């Protein structure tokens, strides 16, 4: 008599879910790996230049301060050391200015890349159809193209901003880099990350709407530049200004490192007039000013303590715009391409 063996039937296989976001991320990184390596290389060059010139200028500065030379000594040895000292600090200031400019224009490059090569080119060539027929939904397809660059940008731009802040902090004294300058402000604090995310977010709807590389790239760059220019114009008004006034012929003195937003003439009744009031009167300027009731000057400015309130306010505006652009991209995707 043969033994009977109970065989439990295997449970039916369930259909495997479609590719997760991680699979889409891997595909995206593989597709654009050369662009990623190029960006990493450029970032490393940028860091090497900023750190190298900062350390070099700091070494020259320390050597000059340790020597018996001062700016008032005029012998041959000290003249040579002074020229080297002046050149090093001047070059450092220019290098940091260009470095900050590179960070401020980066969002436009991000927008151009996302709108053109990353999204519009897939519609132009038709390769998006292959992804959408491989169990990848259009929403997951777009999500991968936004989430992966966003993570890389937050990490990379944070490092660049930290390096720039470290270098700028060593420019106090001769040839300083003002934190409120257009290039420096856009490379410090939280604003660089927010601008980069805005460029990413604006690139998505541009690529989805244009679906051709060149028009999409142009649209994204123009939109990013328009936002940056608008915020640059109103930045001084994003936080309440401090005001100082003076009487007589000299403007009021403000603390060192402040951002002078507006300077003008002040009348006895508290009215404000442009700084160049009565300049055309020549030798009769005093009489002209007296006729207009001018008694002194006013200065609207932001002290150093306003740096972070301005940064955080501008960052909040940028993140709101980025969120709106991202929502628009998914709406366009669902309406025209779902």
What would you note in describing this structure?
With 338 residues, the chain is α+β, with helices and mostly antiparallel strands. It has two domains: 26-239 and 307-337, no CATH class; 242-306, no CATH class. It is 64% helix and 8% strand. The protein contains ten helices and four strands, in the order H-H-H-H-H-H-H-H-E-E-E-H-E-H. The chain has helices spanning 21-31, 33-66, 76-125, 128-132, 138-168, 182-185, 191-210, 213-234, 285-291, 307-337, and strands at 242-247, 259-267, 272-274, 294-302. The protein has a four-stranded antiparallel sheet. Strand 2 and strand 3 (272-274) form a beta hairpin. Helix 1 (21-31) crosses helix 5, helix 3 (76-125) packs across helix 8 and helix 5 (138-168) packs antiparallel against helix 7 (191-210). The radius of gyration is 29 Å and the shape is flat. The relative contact order is 0.11.
Attribute tags:
338 residues; alpha+beta; 4 strands; 64% helix; flat; disordered N terminus
Task: Describe this structure in a few short sentences.
With 338 residues, the protein is α+β, with helices and mostly antiparallel strands. It has helices spanning 21-31, 33-66, 76-125, 128-132, 138-168, 182-185, 191-210, 213-234, 285-291, 307-337; strands at 242-247, 259-267, 272-274, 294-302. It has 2 domains: 26-239 and 307-337, no CATH class; 242-306, no CATH class.
